[in-house]
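[09:14] KT: can someone run the structure on this one? pasting the chain below
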Amino acid sequence: MSAMPHRFAGHLGLRAPDRPLLRHLAGSGDPIAQIELLADCGFVGVQDNFLALRQPEQQERIGQALARRGLAMGSFVHDPLAWNRPTWSAADVDSRAALLAEVKRTIACARRVGGCHVTCITGFDPGRSRSEQLAAMADNLARAGDCAARAGLILCVEATAPAFVPGMLVESSADAIALVDRADHEAVALMLDTGHCAMNGEDLPTAIRRAGRRVAVVQIADTPGRIDPGAGTLDWPAIFAALAEIDHAGLIEVEHEPMEDSAEGERSLLGRLQALPRS
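[09:31] RB: done, structure tokens below
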């Protein structure tokens, strides 16, 4: 298959570790089979929300397969068992120590696969003000950033739309940008998700330009809902033009499941990705 128009990364599972992007075409949910197929289809990387839950031996096999096929490891979720708990906004000494211990486990996962971008999201604590929690998260990111930087890791703050993922702390790109700026650390950056921004009613080119060089990872999905890029309402020529303006050179992760849960649906997704405009 011809090269994709952008540096796309497929996923090894968004809602379950055995439901990768092209599981029907691969004939398997096995991550190694998926990596082989993604490489054959012109992807240049993979992301894996559930990497930290996989056994170390499987993580090492993933890293070896990526190296063999020349693919980059994209983002993976920090502590996927506690992704919607208010861990990053912890304010007490014991909770902050537990957070740093988990960051060290995340670093070990990253080393096995050659990854460097970690998705940092956290739940909202209704017993504390949002402003207090955002301030605490920025402080915790800065603390964890020292450890992450030594390991070559980037902690990526992502805003999630409350209409799609309720109960989370960071709900807008403005909040995410403010967090990155307050943390003010080389190892803390922004993850920008087109689907979440659009669900919040944000203008994507404006949001991208406002985020600028803070953006380390871009995740894409069209709207309404989270559907194949090119099948919905988003202005992809304007989005990719804005990404070119900020000189984004990182991965663009395909952050949704195919619209049709079938091999044909996966082929349709591949065709839509191939048809997206080049910068």
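[09:33] KT: thanks! Strands lie at 8-11, 45-47, 72-73, 76-77, 117-120, 154-158, 188-193, 215-220, 252-254.
[09:34] RB: yep, looked fine to me
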